[in-house]
Amino acid sequence: MAGPILVVDDDLFFRQLASDMLARHGHRVVSVENGTAALEEAARTPFDLVITDVVMPGVDGFALTARLRERDPDQEVILVSQRTDIKGSEMALRSGAADCLAKPVDEADLVLAVDRALERAALRKERAQLRDENMEFARFHNLHQRCLELISQSDLEWLQERIISELSAVCDAQSAALWVLDDRGDLVLRAYRGLLDKQFLAERMSPEGPLASRLKDAQPWFARDERSAVLYVPLMATGEIVGLAQLSDPLAGDFRQEHSRDARVLADFAAVGVKNGRRMMALQRLGLRDRETAAYNLSYFTDYASKEIYKARRYGRTFSLLTFSIDNLPLVRVRQGAADAKKAVRGIIKALSKIIRDSDVIAKASDQEFYLLLPETDFFGAMMFVRRAVAAVREEPEVQDVEQRLPLALVGGASTFPKDGEDFDELVHRCRRRMDERRASLQRRLMLDGLPFWDEVDLLLGTPNSPKLPVDERAEPSRRGKVADVLFDELQAEIARELMRDPGSRGLLYVGGPEIRSDLPIAAGLESAPPDLSSRIYLLGRRMDLESHPALTPVFLEGDERVARHEFILWLSESAAYALIQRRGRGATWGFHTSDTAVVDGLISKLQAEYDLQPY
After folding, report:
1. Are 497 and 525 in contact (CB under 8 A)?
2. Do 154 and 276 form a contact (C-beta atoms < 8 A)?
3. Are 503 and 495 in contact (CB under 8 A)?
4. For residue 46, what is the enclosing H or E element?
């Protein structure tokens, strides 16, 4: 049914006459007495046709037509005037009117002009509707194609990048970020693009807490930060959270409801694509494992490592590569047989598999060498993992069974991207160099692994009559002998300065001595340490005047004569390894100091075990 017709004339008789004529032919009519009232009425109600007198006080017919056409260029207008000259008709048509009738108006002429105008209006509406439907179809077809593409690929790295690209496209967003649920149940940042600054993006978020209610609704929601409108889009599959996308910096300045609707559709397919990608990765891993050890083969590992390198470069992330070698495996095979050699390899892989995360990858590079890739792990974390790995291997029953007859010479090395190299070969080379350093270390040459902390201290300190420590050019230097009385204090002050220069560097520092005092150089040097100091620092000794410190943790050891007779500094960080142990006597101070990472790590590990201290 056609919409209402607006009749505008200051002559009440004409308004009533035109209304009656049109009503007899089934038209709905609204009439007003001037142009101002007509504009107000048109603002409230859309009219398919406006019939207006030309000569009216205030806003005349020509002005009214122009104002109506500003609002709607397709507005149908019929002008009615007393003028019958050609010039008047020409002016009427130039104003944009569809027709011009002269008073008195014949009913047949009026009805014919109205029918033509309404037919044109109907055709325009139909054409606009078809155009909108075609555009809507094309939009949905485009969205459908985007959705199909997201579930047609199994490569998770490609998919994560594609998800934010497609969401940005359908929502006209210039910036986007994507968090994906990891094996620990946290949302981890996997991709971002546009105008975002990574330092302001959370690396990891919990789906619980403030996010829980939002994610439970499974609906996109709008927000606004200091810079831009933000649209959050949860990725849900079968009622489970898979990820969360953040879209910002919309081109139009704000997001619309259709953006939320399209993002929801795309996100549903994206979630299915992520789940499928994970399943495909699991299947690929099953087919690429060594049958005896279940470790991945080297081909898969190098491909995985190349993808991790790309991600680390793209997003400024870090990861660590670890290598482990059973140096005496050929000897085990000769002396005890192939069965024991296989059991040793199987036990080591089993022990490592128990302590790695789902995102970590372990591969068998050769019969006696293994690789591990630890995403999102810095060098200090890698060193701590090497320690845990060796301890886990020693506790594995199959390894213990083999070692009853012949101990295994297991050595590990670590390297970190980009600190130690920016390609796979560089990282492997750095790992092997560190393995060589451990092979040459005092830790192995003096067979210190089985000694308790204080027994090792006594061995390393020795006496003036003890033989010299063995020297190997491949190992970091170690010395024993007389040391300056001020060395202990000077080292504390220097370490404090180093920690203040780089408070974000992770590490462990143990300072032990007869008394825990507030005037120790390490305490004074870190008095103004920032609250986000990443290194953990412990003072060990008898309680004195240090009650609390913003950066130090005191460990009170009352009555331990061994601590009372010694002073020591054990420091292990991403960039440094150093140990100083000294014993003061009536004469000169006797000490041992080293930068041998394996010795320092071993001392720290045994100190933690001796006094039940919390590992990092």
Report:
1. yes
2. yes
3. no
4. none
